[in-house]
Amino acid sequence: MTSGDSHFDSLEEFDDFSDSGSDYEATIKATKRKKRTVTGHRPPKRPRQKAALRVSSPSSSPISTPPDPSLQQHQHSRGTSRQASPRHVTRVNEGNRGISAEDIYNAVHSGKTAMVTVVDEWLDSYKQSREAGLLVLINFIVQSCGCKGVVSREMLDSMQNAEIISTLTKEFNEDSVNYPLCTPGPQLRRFKAGLCEFVRVLVRSCRNSLIYDEYLFPSLLALLTGLSDSQVRAFRHTSTLLAMKLMTGLVEVAVIVSVQQQTTQRQYDMENSKSESDRSSDRLEELQASVSQLRENREEVSSMMNGTFRGVFVHRYRDRLPEIRTECIEELGMWLKMDPEDFLNDGCLKYLGWTLHDKQSPVRLQCVRALQGLYQEKEFIGRLELFTSRFKERMLNMVLDKDPEVAVEVVNLSLLIQQRTEEGLREDECGHIYPLVYASNRGLASAAGNFLFNKLQIVIDGDSGENDKSENAAFLQILISFYIQSEFHEHGAYLVDSLWGVARAQLRDWDTMTAFLLQEDGLMYEEEGALIELMMCAIRQAAQASPPVGRTQGKKMLSMKDKKAQEQDRRRITTHFIPLLPQLLVKYSADAGKVTLLLKAPLYFNLEMYNSVPRLEKHLGLLLSQICGIVEKYTEVTVLQACANLFSTLCSDSYTFSSRAHLAFSQLLDGLTECFSTYLSDLLQGTADDDDVYSAATALKRIAALSWVSDSTGWKLFDPCLELLKSRMESRELDKELMVSALKCAAFHLMWAKMNAVNSTPAEGELKRLKMDMRSFCKVCETCLSLNQTEIRDQAFELLCDLLLLYSTNSVRSEPALQALIHLPSDSLRSEMAAFLLDYVFSDTEDDELNVEGEEEMKMTLLQKKRNQLAGYCKLVIYGVLDLTAATNVFKHYSKYFKDFGDIIKETVSKSKLISPILSAKTVGLSLQQLFSEMLTEDHSRQDLSEIRDLAKRLAMSFGIDLHRVRKPLVALHTDGVRFAFRDPREGEAQHVNVAFLEILSEFSFKLLQQDRAQLAAFLKSECPSAALSWPSVRMYQRSLEGRSASKHREQEEGGVSSLDTPVAKRKRITAPGSVASSARESWLDSMSIHSSLPTPALTSTVQRLTAKQLSPSREPRATESIVGSSLTESDDEVSLGSHMRKVRPTKRRPLSSQNGPTSDPQDLNSNLTLLSLIEDDDAESEEPEIEDYESDSEHDSDYTLPSTRHTSASVLDELFD
């Protein structure tokens, strides 16, 4: 393998790649130089046998063919002459009545004709006249490129390939840059499939005869090689695809010929080994002739393969167009599998290794798939050792590819390497893949789950001799260890979902799981908690047959078979867990976390089985008593909520046993209410001790948790709770637990009472009493907002937001009888809520207190609480409870707190425009006016004005792109802003202190229509004193109203130089290389980070070899293009393509005039522009997608993200505003 090292070490090898001696050398170079003058007698049109495609430099090609220097004299005169005509013809050769190029094209394009029939018809015409047949094939290729030019028979013998391509390029007068191979839609797939099928059938039909006729395939490959080097993308793409497919056919023929040669050689050796009496001399001569013929045929095919590989693949595998690179790599993968003797070596494998660094994901994807095909073959593994050792690091880094499809295939490739190679993957290398089981992309997570499952099986098989446990028990135990060591707690649902496709049987082994949990000394404490969590996740997955939050990929309808399997799983779960769940609750009753998880199990049961199966009915009473015991034992909110959810499910009227559950629930609530009432009088009189306060608080807390899911108005707890709150605030004895629970109980009473009023027809007196209760509760909450107790204050604000919305005008719009329940907040309450928002939501004081190491989780919890509070306030604005002007307290923090609350504020701005576009725009302006007034009051610096302008820019973008729709709102905003700038000074104020506000207002001018600009300019002059027109702020606002064209015209009149005169040079995109870091661990589960240091190969385009002189005409017209906005944003569309990328220097704009240079012929100029539109240069971003910068191990580009257990990005606002 030492000699193979050189193939991987350097990318500069291609820059020095020698094409000398190639049969295609003249053809390739002919496109880069002028036509040579041919004098004297004409050389032969076609080379002799074995000289058609002979390569004299075998060291430069992976396919070995002996050189023949005596035949190289024909290289520059091998009959590669053609000429194109722009005429449209159906039959190219009138004398030949066979199939035409258009007939072949139509058959390929439609896909409705059997390709064997088409090829047979063409072969018949070719056998009649091979020149005419070749001409038909050439014109078919030209037409497949989208060119309407036709090569005529008279011109076939007069010009070289370079001249043909040049003529076709000039005559390529198409209205669109599209060509058949880039046509979008199913038409593209049909045409491409037909084209590939035609080539395949052609080679297969010619493999025994015409492939060796010294004329057809050499001429065809010579033309395709020349076209593949064309600057016209249509020619280059189509010819490269055809050449690659022809090469694949030739490789197939070469393999067949090699097998035939080996078989014939064995027959010859066997015949020759016989004694002279038994040996047949005629048979020996016949076999010897066959061997010689097959060897000659093999050399002929190898010559054509060599020429195509070196003339097309070597240059096009790094073409600028990603589709071309993809085609090359796809075919290379097929050659490596079909003919490993010739191709499976380091000289060819290096192309796959280098292409792993490609910047386009489709190319990387095809490369990885090609490698998968190689690693699947055991006999190839030995030849892949050097490649594996050299590029394994790169492949492992690609598991974090920003394209999830590529990452999935790389994980599958890593599994093949793990399974097929002797060394496999080390534990630190496997550590790159293990965390992906928690990825949000389900395909990637499933692939990583498959990898993890196979790794776990290897560990289990290794320990099977030392352990007597069943295979499923061993799997569960090692999975628990992995889950604990992965340290991604609360994400068990994602681990189960990742493994569900391959380990479904193990994850549904309920018997083994419950046996582990019920035995005394089976698992350690932490392992029991992990197993319970995984078991609950597996129960949910089996019962619901849906992925966890964040992994749902559209709505998938379950088939009848899947629904039946799901129902069977639910019955198995129910039958197994109904008898065992009370036992599990008894054993783990002291652990709040485990009890909370176990209480979720009945939610996935088929609860009807409690009655339908007689032996299970007795367990319902046990379960109800267990739930009541847990409620009386625990005060943790999570446990109480789990009990409340389960009670709510069991009390559903859809079950026949619901009366039993209702009875148990009522008895539990009676006991808790009686306990609270026992201590109420002492609490109101102030004689209760700490134990009494604690007992009352815990009872109220349990009642509040149960009231969350069930109607508790029958227990009449509102008045006692309200009296308790008032007495506590009067005495200033603010017990946090007691008051928060009392607030919740009172609020839940009001909520259930409103729901009951909607569902029934209450008396008028009841409605008045309910409204009075609502008013009293709001006063209490208003007082709580000013308390110095965070929990009480936050709970009061959140409950107020919900209740004010529930008792708003909109809530009873469809119920006229409930109009008496409408309660609007008082002015004092509005002020208190606004003050709460400014003091505790848009404030960093609590965040600063948490700037301690290890407090990140608390900071996230605090942020989530603030987001909920802000969303509640915004809902009051959106639904009309608060005036739209109250949103100024929200809008003016849009820029400063964009990271934390930007999505909520943006949604509020958007919803406010639906309520009243003009009032919304005025509210935006009022927010800016308030900030500006605060700046003047606090005497801030000029820096604060720029911050307000940044806010104005953000708010201006919220008006959208439909300028006619936002016309009136914008005019209203500008009018209010101008009035504010020139309002009369108040007592003690200086004159016109607000004029600088016009600078902020100018940020909205670019959205104005031209007629509104003139109207506002006139309004400005009417409001502005004449002396103030020359002030800088006023002039800036006037310029913003004039627009770019008028502003530029005025500057030219004043002799000024506009900043727009010099276009900004495009900036190359620079991406810092990312890294993946993961902590090292000691067990087999450990992982370590891998940083790729392999260089990315340069991607070369044909046009990059053009000189600056050749490109200058194409760059001149760009000076006349509009550069509106170019001074505001820099374009990063220009991407560096290795050492071949030229630097673009900024040039000053020059006005184009007929006096500046000679007048060009309009027809010639039009022709040149048409030609330039078809030829790629390195600035043609509009013709093809850019090659994006790629850093697979960059953290911010990676699709490896841990999903949230609470929200997805799409559902956050829905949940907050629902």
UniProtKB/TrEMBL annotation:
Subcellular localization: Nucleus; Chromosome; Chromosome, Centromere
PROSITE patterns, alphabetized: SCD
GO CC entries: chromatin; chromosome, centromeric region; cohesin complex; nucleus
Organism of this sequence: Cottoperca gobio (Frogmouth)
Stored PANTHER family: COHESIN SUBUNIT SA (PTHR11199:SF10), STROMAL ANTIGEN (PTHR11199)
GO biological process: cell division; chromosome segregation; sister chromatid cohesion
Gene label: stag3
Annotated coiled-coil segments of the chain: 270-304
Subunit and partners: Part of the cohesin complex which is composed of a heterodimer between a SMC1 protein (SMC1A or SMC1B) and SMC3, which are attached via their hinge domain, and RAD21 which link them at their heads, and one STAG protein.
Keyword Cytoplasm found: no
Protein name, as recorded: Cohesin subunit SA
Function: Component of cohesin complex, a complex required for the cohesion of sister chromatids after DNA replication. The cohesin complex apparently forms a large proteinaceous ring within which sister chromatids can be trapped. At anaphase, the complex is cleaved and dissociates from chromatin, allowing sister chromatids to segregate.
Family, similarity comment: Belongs to the SCC3 family.
Highest taxon of the lineage: Eukaryota
Keywords recorded for this protein, A-Z: Cell cycle, Cell division, Chromosome, Chromosome partition, Coiled coil, Nucleus
Record's compositionally biased regions (Basic and acidic residues): 1-10
Low complexity biased stretches: 19-29
